[in-house]
Amino acid sequence: MDGLADLHRVIFRDEPVPGCAMPEVGHLRPFEIRSAEDAAALREFGIDVVVDGAASEIPIATLWIDPGSRKRDLRINLRGNATRARIVLDQPFGLSGTVLIHGRDCVLVDCGHPERGSKVVVNMWTDGCAFYWGRGCTGNGIITEMKGDGQRVIVAEDCMFATDISIRPTDMHAMFDLASKEVLNGSKLGRVILEPHVWIGQGVLVTKDVRIGAGSIIGADAIVTRDVPRRSLAVGAPARHRRSGVSWSRQLTPSKRDMEQVEQYLDDICADREA
């Protein structure tokens, strides 16, 4: 579909992430937003688009929406320099909450969920930012701030989030050495990546340049400042690796067969990369 062919490259660049297939787009319905009046048609999907400023000759945003989408309770604020934003919302349910786009050429891809929504606040303050929400993910309260051109937050499929969680690929403000005038807290990679089937506990902060491996668990109130290996438990502030060879289930009392299926899933989905 026109306008979507390069999305995979824009989001993932040359950094492969398992469990991050792009949505099938043939069934999606496009909506082009050039003015506040164009946003009215989206209200039937529970999407409130707020446009800051006068009508534009070029698209401020284009949305591709599953025509079977239920009401999402999603507010999208197009402010400041927002132009040419691309937003893909697949499946009946998905992200709810608020999305702020303040920069040019920003991208949001929500692969959706067949049964339930997820509460988020996504703020893209600068140009070329990207947010990817994998298929089957669930969350009860996540905020992410992107402030730096080209910053990205990538959440692979089947991740689970508790409440009061922050994902920040930026510190938002600079810390510098007074003598050398060198900025000390810049982001090297400009992204945060969660691989498939990651469980993030209540009150967790995930900071810039972090990659959390598939199947892992982050304990409540942890501050994640470094990569977390696959199939492991990390807890504390800052978070430390505490145990390997573990994963998790959405069920409170999973059967042995349920646990074997999780293990097989992780084996299969990470087969193309070293575990």
Automatic annotation (TrEMBL):
Highest classification ranks of the organism: Bacteria, Pseudomonadati, Pseudomonadota, Alphaproteobacteria, Hyphomicrobiales
Protein's organism: Methylobacterium jeotgali
PANTHER family on file: LIPOPOLYSACCHARIDE BIOSYNTHESIS O-ACETYL TRANSFERASE WBBJ-RELATED, SIALIC ACID SYNTHASE-RELATED
Name of the protein: 2,3,4,5-tetrahydropyridine-2,6-dicarboxylate N-acetyltransferase
This protein's record includes keyword Repeat: yes
PROSITE patterns associated with the record: HEXAPEP_TRANSFERASES
SUPFAM superfamilies registered for this protein in UniProt: Trimeric LpxA-like enzymes
Tagged with keyword Transferase: yes
Protein keywords: Repeat, Transferase
